[in-house]
Design a protein that fits this description.
single chain, alpha+beta, 3 helices, 12 strands, binds flavin-adenine dinucleotide, three-stranded antiparallel sheet, seven-stranded antiparallel sheet
Length: about 160
């Protein structure tokens, strides 16, 4: 099967956008990701998928902790920054919980300890056990067919 066809098919699934953050040796690192899902209520588990070429992979393997920051619709630039899509470097001011960096003004900061790890092809799946949650009101940043968007509520069908 052609890689492009597979990518196009996956791009038909609209998602929110997250920035995964962690800290190793006193250095904060962030990476944009949309491969995120809720897994279990008891215990509270979530899943992320990190590519083998991403610097984030080694960082989470070392810290055994990560934060999933769910971006608001005002945070497209933050997403582009942490996806390496902006030319210029930026200083980012993080908030911190338990020594882990949080993206300020995200809709949710989901602070996790690594619960289990599974290599799957060229990605590694990390299941995280949720330890802390910070929530804010707002609308989500979304991603569909390689483009950013927002969220429009449909009126209920009658
Ligand atoms: P780098 O490429 O080194 O870092 C990414 C960028 O973040 C760099 O520009 C760096 O300067 C900046 N940065 C990092 N830390 C800081 C800091 N403390 N302060 C300021 N800037 C900082 N890849 C996946 O593996 N899984 C996914 O689910 C996934 N989903 C994606 C969804 C979207 C919408 C997009 C656009 C990309 C996605 N990617 C995903 C690709 C991934 O975001 C990029 O490949 C990314 O560049 C890999 O990051 P890295 O860990 O290698 O770090």
């Amino acid at each position: 099967m052609d890689d492009r066809v597979f990518r196009n098919a996956m791009g038909k699934f609209a998602t929110g956008v997250t920035v995964i953050t962690t800290e190793v040796d006193g250095e904060s690192h962030g990476m944009t990701a949309n491969a995120f899902m809720s897994v279990s209520l008891t215990p509270k588990l979530v899943l992320i998928s990190i590519g083998e070429k991403a610097r984030m992979l080694d960082k989470i393997q070392r810290s055994q902790k990560f934060v999933v920051n769910l971006l608001s619709e005002e945070q497209q630039e933050i997403s582009m920054l942490f996806a390496g899509q902006l030319k210029e470097k930026r200083e980012i001011e993080f908030d911190y919980i338990d020594g882990l960096p949080l993206i300020q003004n995200a809709l949710a900061n989901i602070v996790c300890d690594v619960y289990s790890t599974q290599v799957a092809g060229d990605h590694t799946l990390f299941i995280g056990e949720v330890k802390e949650l910070v929530l804010k009101d707002g609308e989500p940043l979304t991603f569909f067919q390689g483009k950013y968007g927002g969220f429009i509520e449909k009126t209920p069908a009658v």
